[in-house]
Amino acid sequence: MTIKQKGYTHWDGELKTTQYPWTPITKKGIKLAFKKKFFKFTFFLTLIPAIVFLVGIYISERLEDFAFLTQDVDAVSFLKISPKYFNSYFTNDFLLFMIVVILVFCGAGLISDDLRYNSLQLYFSRPIRKKDYFLGKASVIAFFLFILTLVPGVIFLLMKILFSGSMTFIWDYPWLIASVFGYSVFITVFFAFYTLFISSVNKNRRYVSVLIFGVYVFSDILYGILHGIFNSDYFSLISIKANLQQVGAAFFGQNYPHQVSWMLSFLILVLICVVAGYVLNKKVRGVEVAK
Amino acid sequence: MERNLKEKEWTFFNSFQDVFSFFFLLGRKAKKTKVFYLLSFMPVAMALMVQFGQIFYSRNSLSGPYVFSNIIITFYLQFIILILALFFGTSVCSEELEGKTLSYLTTRPISKSSFILGKYAAYSLLMVLMTVVGVVLCFLILNFNQLGRFSLYKVLLKDTAVLVLGLLCYTALFTFIGTFIKRSIMFGLIFSFGWENVIQYFPGSTQRFAIVHYLKSLLPSPTSGRFSFLLFRLEPTPPVLAVVILLGITALFLGLACLVFSYKEYILEE
Amino acid sequence: MNPVIKTRKLSKWYGNILGLSDVTLKIEKGITGLLGPNGAGKSTFLKLLTGQIKANIGSVMINGEKVRNNHRIFSQIGFCPESDSFYEEMTGWEFVTGLLKLHHFSQADIEKRAAKALNIVDLEKAKDRRIKTYSRGMRQRIKFAQAIAHEPDVLILDEPLNGLDPLGRRKLIRLIKSYRDEGKTIIVSSHVLSEIEAMTNNIILIHQGKIFAQGDIHYIRDLIDTHPHMISVTCSDPRKIASRFVKEDYILNIDFTEKKDNFVVKTNNRDQFFNRLPSVFIEEKTEVQEITSPDDNLQAVFDYLIGE
Question: How many domains does chain A contain in total?
Fold first, then answer.
């Protein structure tokens, strides 16, 4: 064969792939997160609300042993385990803030590092598709967020049943299981889109970290100021946190914290996901195009 | 070609100047700078909304000077300058390490201190421009019907000076952190939005461990109103002392940054 | 001749990993090739020479002055790093003039020197393009331009030929030689023997953080030439071709591999074998597909030299 006859040929073989080709990406992402300094400590801090709420469930079943608490009206109302208790856990400011901190740790470099080291072409030279890549990266975020949302939610339910020794709580609120699952998935999907989108914006992880944190905090401060000036709850739609709390209240059947339809909040969060998905699809490609 | 030493002496100031102009150009060209410009102009949009609300809908009863001093300036002070200083301050050193461009600079006849101070000054000027332009625009928008009042300009000058002082001080701190810690951004976020936010509300001397305490000590105390909580429990330090302390903190951290950068060994990731 | 660069007992380790061990050297004017396989310690050595990292033990002197934390000495040194890193948003012109500015030249001087350096590396047409749009070869050349723009007496080049096409490579080699002719001191690192061979006879062999040999390349070449070489030949009739070499005294061994069209020859005179091979193919009218020398690389040379 002379050199002239050589050329590129299309590969006609059968593409054999595992059912979950994205799992190595996820495993690597999780391992890398745990390798970061102070991550384990920060992650432990993030679990503090879950521990506090779990203790609350225990106390609620042993109020006679904690008589001093029964004198405090607020404490008694808080310790009445109901969907409101779950809503308080899932939408509390500290948990949401710490989730963003965790996202900075484990999510900022997910795509930006790949862009920086030109590793996208390495990913796509293997039998994985774009959706596998995104799924692998999103699963890293899902792993950490489920530990902070879904896992405590399920444990709260189980512990409530165990501590009370009856299924009454579940019969009283049979839809609560779906709420816990639904809101955990919703918040995880939203933050996965949000983080991956920002991570794909730039190759510089420090810049991405500032953006993940800054956009979240900025939207909330802006809401606070505009609400303060105009006294209108519609400005809560600007705030990511307020929207998540609003949707949370809808999932757990609670009073809305802002006088705006929860559907609007839901639509805004979905819209952010759609825009993020579109940008991600455009930004992540196997071939680097120099401009 | 003869080395033209007669025209420029090899002084520390010349090195500083050369580093400054190199990084001012680089900073100006970076896309990130444009995004941060956008961020620092967000209060301008807010000021516009306030004025439109007032003119067309009479939706609020707050006066322009009140909104400017108690909301816009506080927003700059507690969010924008922190974010700017955090990013640009840590960039002074981390950017070179992450981009592996440090060797281009450390193999030039410039001292390491002049590099740190020159780059710090270049990025500080960029941030000051971002902030001051935004603040002045906010001021003009919010006070457009009383621009003849001389006393308002004094407020503008004072508020702007406080912001600039804050920027210099925080940037010096984050420059030091950037030379010292690899994951400086995480530490910076926790310091800015954790420590600074919490400690300033502590009573007694505790609040003096936050930089924001000294900055707030320089601002006029708010009249009672919806936003007085922003200065809640402030036990102010006398203004002159506050300025001296802020300048001292700036000098201290810049000195430490120069020292660390001169003697620390940076191994670039291969 | 006075040595320009002197190192004494230079040692560097990263944690418990040895980077460089007990290197005492004197380097004179002219080109010195630093040769070693990947991970041998070439970059560590060059970083120590340029004061970017500090030695755990030992010292480096250039022109009689210490290097680390002595910024003034860098007016005499040009350094071309190995890593492909740049201020990507800058144009080539801004990059070179910006770095020249740090040498305290006047503006007119900066422009003159930058234009000259860019002209030397054939980048004057692309000087206003952002570096992020440059090809690999252009990036390599702009990196070289910033190292030579201030016309230093000592040039330290870490793998400068990486990523260059053959033409660019030849041009750069010629250029490096021209600096030698101007009386400058140049240290060039590479893991490719032929690259270094094309530039200089004076080489330093570095392996596993230690200086293995220093001196004339011909000595090394002789060692390579006389050490038994494995040569793999793939052709249409390997047994017929191999039979023609059986009687030759420079053939030590012939192996037939599992592939039907291949055999491997072990010889202690590579040149003689290669001189004979083409005529055998022609005489036997055999189609040749591939001739490779699996151990004709630096690692093999080192393995041979250290007796592994």
Answer: 1
Q: Which residue of A has its CA nearest to C290?
A: A1
B233 touches chain A (CB under 8 A): no
Task: Determine the structural domain holding residue C87 and report its residue range.
Answer: 5-215
Straight-line distance from the first to the last Cα atom of chain C, in angstroms, rounded to the nearest whole number: 37
Cα gap B202→A104, rounded to integer Å: 28
Q: What residue spans of C121-190 are helical by DSSP H?
A: 136-148, 166-181
Query: Residue C61 has what DSSP assignment?
Result: E
Q: Which residues contact B84 (CB under 8 A, 6 or more apart)?
A: B36, B39, B40, B127, B130, B131, B167, B171
CB pairs under 8 A between A and B: 69
Euclidean distance between CA atoms C260 and C234, whole angstroms: 9
In the beta sheet, which residues pair with residue C205? C35, C213
d(CA C156, CA C33): 10
Determine, yes or no, domain membership for A262: yes
pLDDT at position B3: 47
Q: Nearest CA to CA, how far is A181 from chain C (Å)?
A: 46
Choose among B46, B83, B98: nearest Cβ to A225: B46
Domain range for A247: 21-283
pLDDT in tens, B91-110: 999 999 988 999 999 999 99
Out of A205, A214, A226, the one facing B49 most closely (by C-beta) is A226
* CB atoms inside a 10 Å sphere around CB A44: 10
Q: Are strands C202-207 and C30-35 parallel, antiparallel or unpaired?
A: parallel
Q: C233 and C160 in one domain? A: no
Contact A116, A204 (CB under 8 A): yes
Mean pLDDT computed over C9-23: 89
Do both C188 and C238 map to the same domain? no
What value does the CA radius of gyration of chain C take, rounded to a whole number of Å?
23
Rounded to the nearest angstrom, the minimum Cα separation between A46 and chain B is: 14
Q: Is the pLDDT of residue C190 over 60?
A: yes
In a domain, C23, yes or no: yes
Evaluate whether residue A212 is within a structural domain.
yes
Kindly state whether C290 is in contact with chain A, defined as any CB-CB distance less than 8 angstroms: no
pLDDT digits (tens, 9 = 90+) for B205-263: 788 889 999 998 888 765 555 445 445 567 788 999 999 999 999 999 999 999 999 99
Q: Is the pLDDT of residue B7 over 50?
A: no
Minimum mean pLDDT range among A16-20, A235-239, B21-25, B139-143? A16-20
- Give the Cα separation of C274 and A62 in Å (integer): 92
pLDDT of residue A10: 63
C118 with C210, same domain: the answer is yes
pTM over 0.95: no
- d(CA B185, nearest CA chain A) in Å: 6
Residue A221 forms part of a structural domain: yes
| Residue C189: strand pairing partners | C34, C158
Domain count, chain C: 2
Q: pLDDT tens-digit profile of A170-228?
A: 898 989 999 999 999 999 999 999 999 999 998 889 999 999 999 999 999 889 888 88
Residues C132 and C254 in one domain: no
Q: How far apart, in whole angstroms, are the C-alpha atoms of residue C107 and residue A247?
A: 61
Would the CA dihedral through A27, A30, A33, A34 be positive or negative? negative
Average pLDDT over residues B29-36: 88
- Of the three residues C215, C244, C273, the one that is the final residue of a domain is C215
Label residue B1 exposed, middle or buried (CB < 10 Å: 0-12, 13-18, 19+).
exposed
Q: What is the mean pLDDT of chain C?
A: 88
The amino acid at residue A95 is L
3-state secondary structure of C59: strand
* H helices present in chain A, as ranges: 23-35, 39-46, 48-60, 67-70, 73-78, 83-90, 93-107, 109-116, 120-124, 130-148, 150-164, 168-172, 176-199, 205-230, 240-251, 262-283
